[in-house]
Design brief:
Layout lengths: L2 H5 L9 H9 L10 H57 L4 H13 L2 H24 L9 H19 L8
Helix pairs in contact: 3-4, 4-5
Length: 171
């Protein structure tokens, strides 16, 4: 703040020190300001309260963080259990271990494109295996060759339906 701003209308160019002192007698130099002692006391109280609040918030934040971590861990364990259960089901349906795990994870994550793709690959492998098996000559033994081939084909079809989950085990 300049002297002219401080004195306002009382300011004149070339004022002496005595004139400035006289003009300042009528001015409240602390108007709009807080005395240093009051400010220091208030600042000290504010700092003390901030520290107390920070300490208290830290405890609350630590509890909140711990609860959040526990919930995350619980959710992770739930997902692992779900993946393991699904993986087991796919292994029982004849999926390879790698593909069963991939499909189970995809299901849990909601990635249905991967589930469809991997299931289609598995079905294609089953069809190719069935075709290869069908090209093998039937086993020789009692009865006519036609009876053996028909029995063998029906048995293979039943097994494929069981693997795909379309038929329950047994007859």
């Amino acid at each position: 703040m300049t002297l002219q701003e401080l004195l306002g209308d009382a300011y004149k160019e070339g004022m002496t020190i005595e004139e400035i002192e006289t003009a300042l007698k009528d001015k409240d130099l602390y108007e709009g300001y807080v005395k240093k002692e009051v400010f220091d006391k208030t600042a000290s109280e504010v700092a003390k309260l901030k520290k107390q609040l920070r300490d208290k918030m830290t405890e609350e934040e630590q509890r909140t963080e711990l609860e959040r971590q526990k919930l995350e861990e619980l959710e992770m364990l739930r997902k692992k259990v779900q993946v393991n259960e699904l993986e087991k089901k796919y292994l029982q349906k004849g999926f390879s271990a790698e593909r069963a795990l991939k499909v189970a994870n995809a299901l849990i994550e909601g990635d249905y494109d991967t589930v469809a793709t991997e299931s289609a690959k598995h079905a294609e492998e089953l069809v190719n295996a069935a075709k290869a098996e069908a090209l093998k000559p039937p086993l020789s033994g009692g009865g006519s060759d036609g009876d053996q081939a028909e029995s063998w084909g029906a048995k293979l079809a039943d097994e494929n339906l069981k693997i795909l989950g379309l038929k329950k085990g047994g007859n």
